[in-house]
Specification:
The protein is globular and about 75 Å long. By secondary structure, it is mainly beta. About 5% of the residues lie in helices and about 45% in strands. Among the domains are: about 140 residues, Immunoglobulin-like (Sandwich), CATH 2.60.40; about 70 residues, Sandwich (Immunoglobulin-like), CATH 2.60.40.3080. Bound molecules: CU-O-CU linkage and copper (II) ion. CU-O-CU linkage binds next to strand 7 and strand 33.
């Protein structure tokens, strides 16, 4: 295999790079789905094994095929030696099934949520949401695509044969160290992976083809287009089909966002088409845009050295081959009828203001963060908003920083009312769960409705989907309150400590009021703390490596839990 690759490099004319066939994940469907998060290794570079993680495989996970209205039992098995969670991004599920930071799956445990799929046909995704560790786990590969189908979509003449004329494409930029390990918290993300494949090409049939694009990157925004400015048609946003296909030759895709696009390739068999990110055209403040040294983006350490910033770079290549049997040969005229919530039904307006932490100014703080929402960093013990069940609300997001932030809300899909006071472009007029909020006092207003899933116990999240920002606290949470809240279950949560082994800090999660005492291996008491919160954090940085014990005394329970400090 390795020989073959080298041979290709040898014989190809100069200027053509050896390429790898795009990996297409297997699919899982049915009423019972097992996802096993495990560590793996991948040879992204010949002779180097990169440590990764994935679901049921080494990197990324299978594509889940779900039908609206079906019920599904998920079995998420955590085979890692550290905690995780699993969030169904974009799906309308109850807070306790949502897999947010409060629903920790300790190492070695299985989490089995069951729910009914209530979502419209679209492309969703799954990924961990562990408080302060989302970037690390997603970077190493913990993510996968979810395709939901529904009767309305099925009635349309659209490509939907997975892997034949309908392809998932997870676009990620990654930073590799000199020994080809994936790095986090760096602006050195200069390698593009599509479905985990470097330098990918995909053979597509000469007919109408559907690509389900997901930006699974940590921070990078893409400005996608194709060779010769070939037009394409966006048919779906994050959470549903558009009213009609929207013809585009550029598509901005921010972290967490999805877009389904169609191409009409029926006359171009034999052609090679590049998918490029025209990042030189990105507006100022979007991660990946230009960085003249006096401008704030230049203040992100390493940003100016990253060869993808302010350049146009190849994302992947499409090679048009012979059509399949019964090909689809036309892009439909219209799709579905979206019914945005009427503004007249609004019962609450909320303002969310993004700032650098503690209102620090200067280009560094304005682009690097850490950032806050409404002057607060995420506190798992504080409920930021209590939302009455069935409320229709308008949320206004104001970005007083120098970088564009992709804002995501759980539980619901929303419709954008305006961006900087202007109606959203036609391809953003569908159902959304992520919106890129422009920098320098940019504003976005959206309207949504909080139907279903009142629950006092478990909150839903909203946050920036730049995973570095999210992990650093650019997140908040809300509870949907309603009649059902009184009968919320009161089963005691399981106490977990993570990460374990730990380095400088450890989080104890699942607490009820009580007393926590920390002992070293000799039984010496190091710290006692009265805990009132769900999470408590302990600093370990001053302590020697070794074994420590956390004694947790709650109402009628005492537990002794062991931690390794490295
Ligand atoms: Cu895709 Cu709250 O995460
Ligand atoms: Cu952000």
């Amino acid at each position: 295999m390795k020989k073959a690759v080298q041979f290709l490099i040898w014989v190809l004319p100069i200027g053509i790079i050896a390429q790898n066939a795009l990996f297409i994940p297997d699919t899982l469907s049915g009423n019972s789905i097992e996802l096993r998060l495990q560590s793996g290794q991948v040879e992204f570079y010949p002779e180097y094994l990169t440590k990764t993680m994935g679901y049921n495989q080494d990197y990324l996970g299978p594509t889940l095929m779900l039908n609206k209205g079906q019920s599904v039992n998920m079995h998420v098995i955590n085979d890692l030696s550290t905690s995780t969670t699993l969030h169904w991004h974009g799906m309308h599920v109850s807070a306790k099934n949502d897999g947010g930071p409060h629903t920790v799956i300790p190492a070695g445990n299985t989490w089995s949520p069951s729910f009914t799929v209530m979502d419209q046909a679209a492309t969703y995704w799954y990924h961990p949401h562990l408080h302060q560790h989302t970037e690390e786990q997603v970077t190493l590969g913990a993510a996968g695509v979810i395709i939901v189908r529904d009767p309305e979509e099925r009635k349309l003449i659209l490509p939907r044969t997975y892997g034949k004329d309908d392809f998932p494409i997870v676009i990620q930029s990654r930073a590799f160290s000199a020994d080809k390990q994936m790095m986090i918290q760096t602006a050195g993300d200069d390698v593009i992976l599509c479905n985990g494949t470097r330098d990918a090409y995909l053979q597509v049939p000469a007919q109408v083809v559907r690509l389900r694009l997901l930006n699974g990157s940590t921070e990078r925004v893409y400005n996608l287009g194709f060779s010769d400015d070939m037009p394409f048609y966006q048919i779906a946003t994050d959470g549903g089909l558009l009213n009609a296909p929207v013809s585009l030759n550029r598509l901005i895709l921010a972290p967490g966002e999805r877009a389904e696009i169609l191409f009409d390739l029926h006359n171009v068999e034999g052609k090679t088409i590049q998918m490029t990110s025209y990042s030189s055209e990105l507006s100022w403040g979007m991660y990946g845009s230009s960085h003249p040294s006096m401008m704030p983006m230049g203040s992100i350490p390493g940003y100016g050295q990253n060869g993808l910033n302010d350049r146009d770079f190849k994302v992947m290549q499409l090679t048009v081959v012979a059509p399949t049997e019964n090909p689809i040969l036309a892009v439909p005229e219209s799709l579905i009828t979206n019914k945005p919530y009427p503004i007249s039904e609004t019962s609450a307006y909320r303002n969310l203001i993004f700032t650098p932490e503690h209102d620090e100014m200067g280009p560094g703080a304005m682009t690097n963060g850490p950032f806050e929402i409404n002057d607060a960093e995420f506190d798992p013990n504080i409920i930021n908003f209590r939302i009455p069940l069935n409320n229709t609300e308008v949320w206004e997001l104001t970005n007083r920083t120098a970088i564009a932030h992709p804002f995501q809300i759980h539980d619901v899909q929303f419709y954008i009312l305006d961006i900087n006071g202007n109606p959203p472009p036609p391809n953003e007029q569908g159902r959304k769960d992520v919106v890129l909020v422009p920098p320098m006092s940019g504003t976005v207003r959206f309207i949504t409705r909080f139907a279903d899933f009142a629950n006092q116990e478990t909150p839903f999240m909203y946050h920036c989907h730049m995973l570095t920002h999210e992990d650093a606290g650019m997140m908040g949470q809300f509870i949907v309150e309603g009649q059902t809240s009184g009968i919320a279950t009161t089963t005691k949560p399981e106490i977990t400590l993570y990460p374990n082994p730990a380095y400088d800090q450890i989080t104890v999660s699942g607490l009820t009021p009580g007393i926590i005492s920390v002992y070293n291996a000799n039984g010496q008491l190091l710290e006692t703390r009265k805990s009132e919160k769900y999470f408590e954090k302990f600093q370990l940085s001053g302590l020697p490596a070794g074994m420590y014990f956390f004694k947790i005394q709650e109402k009628d329970d005492i537990q002794l839990l062991k931690v390794i400090k490295n």
